[in-house]
Amino acid sequence: MPTTQTQGLKASLERDGFIIVSSNLTHAELETLRIASHNITALARAGKWPHIRTLPRQFPPWPSDPSLGIWGVQQLMNPSLPDHALFTKTYFAPTTLATVRELLGPDCRDEQLVMELFNLLVRPDENFELRWHRDDIPPTATADEELARLGRPAFHAQWNMALYRDASLILIPCSHRRARSQVEREAGPYDELPGEIRVVLEPGEMAFYDNNILHRGAYDSKVERATLHGSMGHVEGGGLRARNVLQHGREWIEGVELGGLETEKERERAAGMRDRLVKLGERVGETGFSQDD
Ligand SMILES: O=C(O)CCC(=O)C(=O)O
Predict the structure, then answer these.
(1) CA distances from 94 to 25, 88, 261, 275, 284 (A)
(2) Which of 52, 129, 205, 218 is the most exposed place for a label (fewest CB within 10 A)?
(3) Nearest CA-CA partner of 215 in 17, 62, 11, 12
(4) 217 lines ligand 1 (CB under 6 A)
(5) Cβ(65)–Cβ(47) under 8 Å?
(6) pLDDT of residue 6
(7) Alpha-carbon separation of residue 70 from 126, 129, 221, 225 (angstroms)
(8) What is the CA radius of gyration of the chain?
(9) What is the predicted pLDDT for the residue at 240?
(10) Sign of CA dihedral 14, 202, 171, 153
């Protein structure tokens, strides 16, 4: 059962590596987001939006040619994208911010939050799977290297918000707290692994998960998918988060428009978050990419 309470979420996420919560979106809001997602996906499939996740690549950088098919649309808050204002408002929704602050807590304040990524994951035109991976630890890492990275705070919260029922994410609960077992190291990229589960989200539900949990995706071309894929950081993450975020492109960040947010307080908070990401980009310079494809 998803919960609407934020209390205790951090402990659950730390224990299991993922949690499921309600986004509190109304049916009307969900429908509006579905229509906007449908429109930008059509644009992306037609080659009219270059920031896309293309088959068969798993990790950035992705070519902007959609002819082999796409599995995601990037940069939803880019002011050049239709409906960017709707996606920006959704990203900065007070419910999401409250959950993120709780997960980054115990005393996380608005001034410590950093805007990160907001993308859309969609049904590919042919079945497609992602290999087992941790987002920011390469498969070549030794057990000691894995443990060293896993032992540090995450400094961010990452989520999937499903607009349609979504069972594409497969993960191994608790694997964010340990190095890979021998079986996991020796397994094929798409093998069924002991303890794996599918995370099933009903429309409007969100899964927050540790992006260094062992996970993969399996996408059925016949099942509609429109899942908003976002993350927010903590300012102390600094350079540790920079590559993960900035490898997805940075030209759009400064232009993110906040006029559609409801209150002055929300706009100020969001502007601070956006500006902290701009500053991070200026400070770290070129980051390269987290993974080879
Ligand atoms: O499709 C998903 O939900 C998972 C995506 C994923 O694993 C990734 O972007 O690294």
Answers:
(1) 11, 12, 10, 19, 29
(2) 218
(3) 17
(4) yes
(5) yes
(6) 61
(7) 9, 12, 11, 12
(8) 18
(9) 81
(10) negative
Ligand 1 center–CA 264 separation, angstroms: 34
Q: What is the pLDDT of residues 250-285, one digit of tens each?
A: 889 999 999 999 999 999 999 999 999 999 988 887
d(CA 92, ligand 1 centre) in Å: 21
168 lines ligand 1 (CB under 6 A): yes
Atom number, ligand 1, closest to the C-alpha of residue 72? 1
Report how far ligand 1's centroid is from the alpha carbon of 19 (Å): 15
The pTM is what? 0.94
Task: Using alpha carbons, select from 68, 77, 1, 51 the residue that is nearest to residue 232.
Answer: 77
Beta bridge partners of 50: none
Task: Determine the residue of 57, 74, 130, 176 to mutate for testing ligand 1's pocket, defined as the one with the most ligand atoms within 8 A of the Cβ atom.
Answer: 130
pLDDT tens by residue, 54-85: 999 999 999 999 999 999 999 999 999 999 99
Q: Which atom of ligand 1 is nearest to the CA of 227?
A: 3
Beta carbons within 10 angstroms of residue 293's beta carbon? 11
